[in-house]
């Protein structure tokens, strides 16, 4: 365990690197844990000196093996046309199809150079992560290391055990793919300023918790989009989003159905969303919502309905309803 702690201290950005490779928070956690375990045994038997190179080589190899057998992760809006809100939403698809959010708490600041191809914050944005999944896996590793983490090409060649000239050639192709599929203006959207973030979070949260759909819609742009993976159906424009919310999220019209706990993900404001159980005693984990703002209004909502994400955001699977006496297991 002490050796794992030392590796995490020396290589704090391995989780972000793995997430960028796989597009999955949960898979990246498993890969990093597996890599730490394997690297520890390698260090004990071979007394390896370059821990960083060893760890990234192991993680890259595991990730590349996984990517050989799975399709690139994506978002509904990148795969399907907008859905008709008056029709039944499509059946859920496997969670392995979709991108997952990444907690800002797990992100680390990488020493940045003026020659970097991308701004520091945008490299964890969902549009950027989605575009990366279009790059062939080995080239993806190269562009992530070179253009988001500022590694030298000779260092990357050492990790991948290929020639420097091969790194240079694949990096050029990877940049070409990114130029075709990545809209940088989406990845560079700034969240609300820190001085205004809490107030805007509360203005968004309160309508959900009081079941006030009119108030919620006043907080959204006219062109707002709503995505709800693992459902492939998504909705564009305030009229479509309103109809969907009225039919499902606000269908009962009862205040207190939802509870939201503020978080941050992929450089944006986010919420852990809970739904009250049938007895009204507890709120049960439902989804992680990630918001994108245009000034003071929400322009995009992506609601990831995957309860397995909650622990990484330091959220419990259940929280108690107000007015119920807490037990030892009840905490936010």
- The count of β-strands is 7
**CATH overall fold name of the largest domain:** Butyryl-CoA Dehydrogenase, subunit A, domain 3
Enumerate how many helices there are, as a single number: 13
Kindly estimate the percentage of residues that lie in beta strands according to DSSP: 15-25%
Largest sheet: 7 strands, mixed
- Report the span from N to C terminus: 28 Å
The level of helicity is 40-55%
- What overall geometry do the principal axes of the alpha carbons give? globular
Order of helices and strands: HHHHHHHHHHHHEEHEEEEE
CATH architecture call of the largest domain: Up-down Bundle
Structural class by secondary-structure content: alpha+beta
Gyration radius (Cα, Å) is 21 Å
Number of domains: 2
The CATH homologous superfamily of the largest domain: PhyR, sigma-like (SL) domain
State the CATH class of the largest domain: Mainly Alpha
Mean pLDDT across residues: 89
Enumerate the spans where pLDDT stays under 50 for 5 or more consecutive residues.
Answer: 323-332
């Amino acid at each position: 365990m002490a050796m794992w702690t030392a590796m995490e201290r020396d290589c704090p950005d391995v989780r972000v690197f793995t997430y960028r490779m796989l597009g999955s928070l949960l898979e990246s956690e498993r890969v990093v844990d597996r890599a730490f375990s394997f690297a520890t045994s390698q260090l004990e038997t071979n007394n390896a000196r370059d821990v960083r190179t060893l760890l990234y080589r192991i993680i890259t190899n595991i990730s590349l093996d996984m990517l050989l057998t799975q399709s690139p992760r994506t978002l509904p809006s990148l795969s399907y046309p907008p859905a008709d809100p008056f029709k039944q939403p499509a059946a859920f698809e496997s969670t392995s199809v979709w991108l997952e959010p990444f907690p800002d708490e797990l992100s680390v600041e990488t020493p940045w150079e003026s020659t970097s191809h991308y701004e520091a914050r945008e490299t964890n944005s969902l549009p950027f992560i989605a575009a990366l999944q279009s790059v062939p896996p080995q080239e993806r590793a190269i562009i992530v290391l070179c253009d988001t983490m500022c590694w030298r090409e000779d260092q990357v060649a050492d990790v991948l055990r290929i020639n420097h000239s091969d790194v240079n050639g694949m990096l050029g192709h990877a940049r070409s793919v990114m130029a075709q599929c990545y809209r940088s203006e989406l990845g560079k959207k700034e969240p609300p300023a820190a001085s205004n973030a809490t107030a805007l979070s509360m203005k968004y949260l309160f309508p959900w918790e009081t079941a006030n759909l009119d108030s919620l819609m006043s907080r959204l742009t006219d062109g707002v989009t709503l995505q709800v993976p693992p459902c492939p159906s998504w909705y564009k424009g305030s009229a479509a989003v309103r109809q969907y919310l009225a039919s499902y999220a606000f269908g009962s019209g009862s205040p207190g159905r939802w509870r939201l706990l503020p978080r941050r993900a992929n450089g944006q404001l986010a919420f852990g969303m809970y739904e009250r159980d049938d007895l009204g005693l507890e709120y049960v984990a439902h989804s992680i919502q990630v918001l994108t703002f245009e000034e003071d209004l929400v322009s995009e909502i992506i609601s990831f309905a995957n309860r397995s994400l909650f622990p990484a955001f330091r959220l419990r699977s259940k929280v108690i309803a107000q007015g119920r006496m807490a037990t030892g297991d009840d905490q936010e």
